[in-house]
Amino acid sequence: MVSAALSGALDQAETYTDPVFGLHVPLHIPGVPDAIMQPRKTWRNPNAYDAKARDLAARFVENFKQFEDVNDLASEGGPRHST
């Protein structure tokens, strides 16, 4: 993954937007199993993945409160959903 990113191989890669974290994730990276690029699909219980993702997002949101005085651009980053 790092080699592909550094080489520019991901510059034109098709992506999906993670619904919780807002990250643009490549659908395919040469040499990497496609399933890894969509971690929800690697869990036996997708609902358990969703719960963990929401929990992690909520912890990001809570932790980010210490940076409330930063500029708007920085505050736009981070998870999209905390519940």
Explain the overall architecture.
The protein is mainly α and 83 residues long. It has one domain. 35% of the residues lie in helices and 7% in strands. It is built from 3 helices and 2 strands, in the order αββαα. It has helices at 2-7, 46-64, 72-75, and strands at 15-17, 24-26. Strands 1-2 form a two-stranded antiparallel sheet. It is flat and about 40 Å long.
Task: Explain the layout of strands and helices.
Blueprint lengths: L1 H6 L7 E3 L6 E3 L19 H19 L7 H4 L8
Antiparallel strand pairs: 1-2
Task: Name some characteristics of this structure.
single chain; mainly alpha; 83 residues; 3 helices
Structure in a nutshell:
The chain contains 3 helices and 2 strands, in the order αββαα. The chain is mostly helical.
